[in-house]
Specification:
Blueprint: E1 3-5, H1 11-34, H2 40-46, H3 54-76, H4 85-104, H5 106-114, H6 129-143, H7 146-155, H8 157-185, H9 191-221, E2 228-230, H10 231-242, H11 245-249
Antiparallel strand pairs: 1-2
Helix pairs in contact: 1-9, 3-4, 3-9, 7-8, 8-9
Length: 257
């Protein structure tokens, strides 16, 4: 009898590795800023306030990995389950979008496009228009997903707590500290203070995403039986399907005269 098993990495070990990598990225960036950017190439590669470099791609890949885990969870879900398959699919698509946003700076492009609409809320210097747009989209998504969210909290309490905690940390970094930077630090603060704010902001975004990934992996580990493929049973099922309708349904014995 043959079995093919999908092995899920230990979430705690994954989280430890990711946090170590994120701490190293922040340390290199802050060291470069503190030393006055002595090596331009190194600074450009690790500039947490820049785009298209190692920290940006690290965040993008991590968000893409979260989307892949939720997409796998969607493929394992069964109709009639407490958490519907569509919910996992929407979560996967959401994190794929965030991954693309991190790689292509979609939110910054959105702010630039919408600056002409004076009635839209914004922060100092015309920054942060994207925050209101994303907040509205997030609110609508949560409002349409209340039943699946309640089912998730009921049937997967441990994993769901990690998901909520991770998302809260991401919002704290990407929105909370971003607002602080827009309002107080972009133009008036000393260079090193602004660098510390940027490092903390980006670190919280990456760390929060790591916690979400840990929770998503826990969701897979909570149902190991659905990740096991019994080849022999599949073969038996295939043989039964090939059997004739008479053999499959059975025929009643004729009464003796």
């Amino acid at each position: 009898m043959g079995f093919t098993t999908v092995r899920i990495a230990d979430p705690g070990r994954v989280l430890a590795i990711l946090v170590a990598a994120e701490s190293a990225l922040a340390l290199v960036y802050l060291s470069s800023e503190w030393l006055g950017r002595p090596i331009t190439t190194v600074h450009d590669l690790f500039d947490m306030d820049g785009e298209g470099n190692i920290p940006a791609w690290f965040s993008s890949v991590q968000l893409f990995a979260i989307g892949c885990v939720f997409l796998l969870r969607h493929s394992l879900a069964r109709p009639g389950h407490a958490v519907p398959p569509l919910f996992w699919f929407v979560l996967a698509m959401g994190f794929f979008f965030l991954s693309a946003d991190e790689a292509a700076s979609i939110h910054e492009r959105l702010t630039y496009t919408l600056r002409q609409f004076e009635w839209l809320p914004r922060f100092k210097g015309g920054h942060g228009i994207w925050i209101g747009v994303y907040a509205l989209g997030g609110f609508m998504l949560v409002a349409c997903s209340l039943r699946p969210l309640r089912a998730l909290l009921t049937h997967h309490p441990g994993a769901s707590r990690l998901l909520v905690l991770g998302l809260a940390i991401v919002v704290l970094g990407s929105v909370g500290l971003e607002i602080v930077g827009y309002q107080f630090l972009r133009s008036d603060a000393p260079t090193m203070l602004y660098a510390i704010e940027v490092a903390l902001e980006e670190f919280l975004e990456m760390f929060g995403a790591s916690v979400v990934l840990c929770g998503a992996l826990m969701l897979l580990r909570e149902e190991p039986a659905s990740l096991v493929l019994d080849r022999s049973r599949l073969q038996v099922t295939a043989l039964n399907r090939r059997a004739s309708p008479r053999a499959a349904c059975g025929s009643a014995p004729r009464p003796r005269s």
